[in-house]
Amino acid sequence: MQKTFIFHVTGMHCKACIMMIESELQDLPNITRSSVSLKAHTAEVTGDFGDKSPEAIAEELTKVLEKRGYSLSVEKKNQDKKWNEFKTAIPVALAFMAAFYILQKVGLINLISTSKVSYGTAFVVGIVASLSTCMAVVGGLLLSMSATFAKEGDKIRPQILFHIGRIVSFFILGGVIGSIGSAFQLNVTATFVLGIIIGIVMLILGINLLDVFPWAKRFQPGMPKFLSKHAMGISEINHTLTPVLVGIATFFLPCGFTQSMQIYTLSTGNFLTGALTMLSFALGTLPVLGLISFSSFSIQQSSKAGIFFKTAGLIVIIFALFNIINSLAVIGIIPPIFNF
Prior knowledge:
Elements: E1 2-10, H1 15-26, E2 31-37, E3 42-48, H2 54-65, E4 71-73, H3 86-105, H4 119-130, H5 136-150, H6 156-184, H7 188-210, H8 225-234, H9 242-249, H10 256-268, H11 271-294, H12 305-330
Antiparallel strand pairs: 1-3, 1-4, 2-3
């Protein structure tokens, strides 16, 4: 007999979490429908659970989701914001930005500005993105695909094809977006607006990574749900080209960092600049995604996960503020503050 239950979810950070939880639940044979709300932090599940109590069902589903860092409960749990983690996160973030500043001063990396995001900066943003929960859905997609091929003993080739497909597609599609931007011939005002949008998107991402302001999660942008669902579904097809297609599909998944780089790429108005920007971003995510491919690495299951996310959040917030302040200075609204 089909019944519907609503459970409270802990461990959600962004819209990527919605796709991850819904995908995991709908893979279960006794579940016919699942719908997750980031705003309410709830999961509505419909399926045949026999005579099990809601508590027993929540415990059973948690066993499936806990590998991704989520849990379900009948009663709403008070969020432990773990403010003490900032004692470590703040010094680490400041040390990272100090090192970044030094690299900038010797000419290796440029900070985000309204006119240019250097390839080095895009690479660093990729590293930060790979350490965030926004990339959890990409890791989950990768693991899902790996499981499909592992059943037939094919473990290495699909991983390599996935990463090749991802890197090549980010280069090509980034170039396409850059070319599209050239058709608009963005003026100073349009470039300023895009710069502010990038800053705001990154600011929201950073605040959400801190995991202390639940209200901010409802403002995080995401890809249309139907695109993300189709991308997730590709991973379950056992075909020679599937790993390449999954790699391409990651370009359309709900990662705010990817989207902020896509917005910037649009403003470049140039195929090669857009292509190299998205390529640099993809290469920045490669080390962590590589660890996920060939090991049991998982940040969300680490005891230091909170520190990881808070550190990444602080770094992203700093980048966002630089971008917004520099955008305002270039347009003449405020005088220049940073001589970068």
